[in-house]
Amino acid sequence: MAALWLAGSAKNDNTGILATVALVYLSFSIVNADSKAVTTTLSTKWPSTPLLLEASEFLAEESKAKFWDFVDATQEIHLEDHEETNISYYHYILQKAGEFLTPVQANLLKFALSLRAYSATVQTFQQVAAEDPPPEDCSAFINVHGEKSCVPDRLEVLLQGALERPKPYLFKGDHIEASLRTELPVVILYGEIGTKEFSRFHKLLRSKSDAGRINYVLRHYVANPSEEKVLLSGYGVELAIKSTEYKAKDDTQVTGSELNATVINENDPVDEVQGFLFGKLKQLYPEIKEQLKELRKHLVESTNEMAPLKVWQLQDLSFQTAARILAAPTVDALMVMRDLSQNFPTKARSITRTVVNSDMRKEVEEHQQYFKETFGLHPGDSALFINGLSIDLDVQDIFSVLDLLRNEARLMEGLHDLGIQGDELHDLLKLNVQPADSDYGVDIRNPAIYWINNLEMDSKYNTWPSNVQELLRPTFLGVIRQIRKNFHNFVLFVDPTDESTHELLKTAEMFYTNDIPLRIGLVFVVDDSDGADGLKDPGVALFRAFNFVADELDNMNAFQTIISMYSKVKEGEKLAIEHIIGTLEKDFSNVEVTSILGADSAYDRNRKECTDYYKQSGLGSLPIALYNGMPYQREQLDPDELETVTMHKILDNTAYFQKVVYLGELNNDQDVVDFIMNQPTIVPRINSRILSSEREYLDLSADANDGVDDYSHFAFLKSEEKSAAVANSISYLSKRDDKYIRPLTFWIVGDFDDSSGRQLLYESLKHLKSSNNLRIGLINNPSSEPTKENTVIARAVWAALNTQSINNAKNFITKLAKEETAKALAEGADIMEFAVGGMDNDGFKNMFETLNLDFILSHSSFCKDVVKLKGGQRAVISNGRIVGPLEENEVFNQNDFHLLESIAIEAAEKIKIKIQMLAVEEDLASDLVMKVDSLLSSKSKGEARIDLQFFEGQSSAIKLRPKEEQVYFEVMAITDPVTRDAQRLSSFLLVLNQLVNVNLRVFMNCQPKLSEMPLKSIYRYVLEPEITFTASGSFASGPVAKFLDMPQSPLFTLIINTPESWMVESVHTSYDLDNIYLKEIDGGVAAEYELEYLLLEGHCYDVSTGQPPRGLQFTLGTGANHEIVDTIVMANLGYFQLKANPGAWVLRLRKGRSEDIYKIYSHDGTDSPAGTDEVTVVLNSFKSKIIKVKVQKKPDKMNEELLSDGNAENEGFWESIKRGFTGGPKPEELKLDKEDVINIFSVASGHLYERFLRIMMLSVLKHTETPVKFWFLKNYLSPTFKEFIPHMAKKYGFQYELVQYKWPRWLHQQTEKQRIIWGYKILFLDVLFPLAVDKILFVDADQIVRADLKELRDLDLEGAPYGYTPFCESRKEMDGYRFWRSGYWANHLQGRKYHISALYVVDLKKFRKIAAGDRLRGQYQGLSQDPNSLSNLDQDLPNNMIHQVPIKSLPQYWLWCETWCDEASKKRAKTIDLCNNPMTKEPKLEAAVRIVPEWQDYDQELKQLQKLFQEGKLNGLTRSRTDDVTSTEDHVPHVEL
């Protein structure tokens, strides 16, 4: 409150403020420390991409038309002539883009440019261009089927013979100017929009494309990339306060960074320090700015020293922080929340003095009850909802949130344009209009089906109970109940001559013989022509043979007979006439076979009916299987799969039948099959076009006063305006002529002067008779240029609709739709001959005779330009959803209209209820339902929206009201201000509030009775609503995390929290970011990170087993270089990950066993068409990319396993091991067996542990003759280490490799850096290393080796996957610290040893074979949810799993550690570990010098090498990666992606 008093009262008393400043200044004048700061930036590897290109990609996501309009608009000014300032360039982009965007979308464009969200998209095109590659000295060029040129005039030459050359590969993200026409050549232009060279090409190609001569494709290409990198945002940075219980800081002196002065001197926007609001004070009193600055500095220094709080002071911190936030003025509350939560450790002491209002506490507790019941939230939990959609900032990165905001804006602005506002708008938004995922089936009560058995009638089932109540009798799980009712009906549609038919029939026979309670039916689809001859056509022959045996005996015997016919067919052959004749002659020797099979057969009944039933059902290609009328998916018809799937269907549906019997909906007197077939999901006909999940909608939200009567005006309207004009001018037909809101509108599109169009019209009118929910509008799409002569029916229909009552018009149009009417009119009959009773003949005749063709021309233009139909093509548009174009002979009948209505009616009815409340006139209301349905269905993703019951929250919520008369986002956040979530959420909400109009509520969800400090880190979330500029109009330095006025006494570790799919690395900093101690640094620390890779993640399954193929390897590369990175599939979820950067990549199975045994079966989420072996994956976004790949074993490799005991695995990889050799002989001279290399894995973070790591490596090398290869986890290594290691490798002649693995998103995340590193030691051993590495030794960084590790590598592990050394028991004074001797561990180990994780050896072959990695991850997932378990993660986990994954105990001498082992055993020690000592807490460096005599010699030797390296660097003699020093990152030849 002091802040408000000081800023308010002092305003009238300048002397008062000066006196206060002077007084406080004097009281603090003794303090004279410099302000310390830490800054963090994150940039891309690729050059900064032009903002104009990024803006074009933003528009491309709005629509194709807007992208091309924007490209055209930016041709007027060539940027190279107008580059006065960055700010004028930026405003030029916003102005041009603003012509095509609404105000909300324009704001979101500013945010997208600030995020640089589309930089990755532009860079993808750049990488594709580099693959092409560009001609020399070319700033724009074209590629015509592989031939390139920089000169527009050469286009004609390149087009000659273009179609004879291979077609280029087009990506889903390619910009294609018109619809792709396969008969035309493809011209790809690579260029930079807005440059003169681009403009010359663009105008030429645009004109050629408009003339229908070429397909014009545009790809971005920047000939002269920027020197700058892209500075990213959308990530968090924390400075976590480290425990200094064990001193782990290196004593090597490093100077601080020279920080950019502008960074330090910029004012923190929330300038509240100890109750003083300095931001306001500086505005009010600019003349004392310097004194205020000094006062602020001293206040900061006095508050920032963080003495620990007593337990009683901690208890109420959550409520006290909330009280401080809520006491601030509403406009400042979010800023205060951000300041307090992000700087909590420095603010906590002052917060403890805050008094909590009892009303607020009571209200928070009341709300918490509601949060728990509604959202499952506990005190301290957070949640965020935007328009009712749940946003989890832990899972959804800011780029996904931007997409969501854009989509919501489109929805809300569309509804707003339709005149719907405020609460009504948000009520409509909450409707889920996406059709339910119900499957549809066809009616199986058809005489065309031959039922082989009948559970209710056949004597075979006489002993089974027949009461439906039997379903409710308890039974064992998974048991199929045998009840004498036809609950389960299985129908096969087969072509007898198809090769798959035999296997399907065998499966059906297996169901029958094993007494599965399944009624089996067959439909034979054979030639249905009149003259079909069974002596020539095996299909017809088998059909007649079946009928014959069925008549003689029964259907079951007929079924057995045809099974025996198929048994005569040898593998690779097809069913032939002789197979059928042979069986009949054998079984029915006294019958004349030719009379049964021949053309005049008496056994031909049902042949046509079978084919008619198949065609009418609309089920698609044969074979088809139905379960209770529901079709199986194509891949489920594999015989093995069919059996399993059918059993599952029986079990799953049993639960449904139990429910309906229990509820009394089905009883014993009802026919079960009738009951099933009367369900709403059973339809007369399945139409895959209607049921397809890929749906296209018209934009009907445009405001339009236009009609279709003036074609010269209509032709120049935009697409959405044409749709609105057509909607405005349609007169509708309905079942009855009454005032009623009809929720469904069908537009019938076709040429009504052509029989196909009339047929569609006639079928729709037949359906209309049975539906009062529907109204029908007609749109004419003429096949040829309209004239008075060829548009008689179209004009008559239009005239009738506009002059007659609905009933008369309907009757008249029904007459016109009949073929005999069209025939009579063609022969010269007068239209008035077909008038119906009650018609206004004069009105009709007058309009018909005076009607011009403008409405037909307008309809034709609408069909061509908007619906994308060719002349005469038919379509049905259902509430804006385009069903079509229908193929020339495609059947679309009354049953299809019935299906279309049944899937659309539910959503339309929901909308109708809301629209009725608006009290709009009926016709307008029906229009509004159609338009709202189209909008919501096209833009809404169908996620559940939570209806946020807003309670007022008088004293426990921040409330910001939206601006009136504008669309607003409904935003609700629930948070505890002293949690990690609040640190990020506060920044996000501040930016959101600047971006868009919000109705915001932030409810406090405080935790009572805290017992420890809730936040132990200072946090920044890097996010800006718009690009910022300097006073001179240049771009400001870009997004940066700034920690200003930092306390100097704590030891901090810097952690960067990025989106899941980003892999970042620290670059260009000499300071130890693991141990930041500001007291010892001048100036501050500038941390720079680089986005090293974007992650491609995936899940892989073997289609035959449904299981992940453990050990399968994928590679990711380009067309030219197949293997750039590779990965191994793990058994947990079949997960794999690959590192890449923006571009188009090819995913393949790795050469070797993976490619030999498996082939890619299918893929999802990729850019390749289905069924291709090479899978193209385009990474063109900062968002996560997750693909699904199914693989299948090759037929001749069915019995082979990837993880076999053979030694021929992955020979190709061994080449890369040899390539990694640094120093010594050249790689090609190296002749090593696999066993000749000792592979050693280690992890380190922070300069001290990297120093220990180098010493450990040196100690290893001094004690072995065998070549050594070190494997380091790259994720946490400092730039200094990565720069020095190649030189150390060269000096000492070892190989090394940096391995990386991103912690998978589905595996429980650790937040502390130390625990994350522990996790990497144990959780990913099966996927970190290539399959060729048989054994790996882990050696802790702080170990010194005194023996040859070859001995440990060769040790027999006696079948165990790994060997660890047990903890020493010989130092008796430490007994009190041996936790494993009592409690949980003593009970769990049952006499076994507890092992230490500082040194272990892993037999990777065995480890993978027994799926040890998958087991360890599974156990970790279960245990890690409890924060109190796995306190020493890397050690507790293998010891906890000792019964499932056995440990071989290594001899004690392999690891000696002073803390646990006595002095007598030291002389036998082969390695010495510098364990922490919980009794003395001696710092590591002191312990190393004291315990290990040789440690200092090693240290000095390495310091000398580092000194030489640094001197060489300063003199320019050393490069960070010399040409002859090779790092073999990722164990394959590397090209940076």
What would your notes on this structure say?
With 1537 residues, the chain is of the alpha+beta class. The chain has 52 helices and 49 strands. Strands 1, 7, 30, 32, 33, 36, 38 and 40 form an eight-stranded mixed sheet that branches. A seven-stranded mixed sheet has the order 43-42-41-44-47-46-48. The protein has a six-stranded mixed sheet with strand order 20-25-24-22-23-21. The longest helix has 24 residues, at 639-662.
How many strands in all?
49
Please report which band the strand proportion falls in: under 5%, 5-15%, 15-25%, 25-35%, 35-45% or over 45%: 15-25%
Instruction: Give the class from helix and strand content and strand pairing.
Output: alpha+beta
How many helix segments? 52
* Most strands sheet: 8 strands, mixed
First-last Cα distance: 55 Å
Over all CA atoms, what is the radius of gyration? 38 Å
Helix content: 25-40%
Uncertain segments of ≥5 residues (pLDDT<50)? 1-13, 17-33, 256-270, 1205-1234, 1518-1537
The coarse overall form would be globular
Average pLDDT, to the nearest integer?
Answer: 83
